[in-house]
Specification:
Elements (H helix, E strand, L loop, with lengths): L2 E4 L3 H13 L7 E4 L2 H14 L2 H4 L3 E5 L7 H8 L10 E6 L4 H9 L3 E6 L4 H11 L2
Helix pairs in contact: 2-4
Length: 133
């Protein structure tokens, strides 16, 4: 399972690594970005190199509120990528669940759900089961 976590808070990444270990998953399955522009560049490289297995994410955990490029702006740019790969499961993540964000997520055909920080070991266990039945 390849997870891409995009969050401007380094503490959120540290927390996710601990939770992955609690869920029995290797912390190496997560690729972390504090800068959404760098995450987009990484994904563009994955597409241009055609090496889905080693770098294309199965899951994207995307913080909504980030400076410069927020989660919604990231999604706009991500959806412009010409990808021959299977679309990842995308979860928007936020400290506060804004009703407008919830409505946008529910209206999206690309986002699975809006999750409140911080994620639980059960979330990752269920995700692994869903991806590897």
């Amino acid at each position: 399972m390849n997870i891409m976590a995009i969050d401007d808070d380094p503490a959120a990444h540290l927390y996710n690594r601990f939770i992955l270990e609690d869920a029995g998953l290797p912390p190496t399955c997560i690729k972390e970005f504090v800068n959404p522009a760098q995450a987009l560049a990484y994904l563009k490289d994955c597409v241009s190199e055609g090496n889905q297995g080693s770098c294309w994410p199965d899951v994207i955990l995307l913080d909504i509120n980030m400076p410069k490029i927020n989660g919604w702006e990231f999604m706009d740019q991500f959806l412009q990528l010409p990808s021959p790969f299977k679309p990842p499961k995308i979860f928007m993540v936020s400290n506060s669940v804004n009703p407008r964000d919830k409505i946008r997520v529910e209206a999206s055909t690309h986002i699975i759900a809006l999750k409140e920080k911080f994620l639980t070991p059960e979330f990752f266990i269920d995700l692994a089961k869903d991806l590897n039945p």
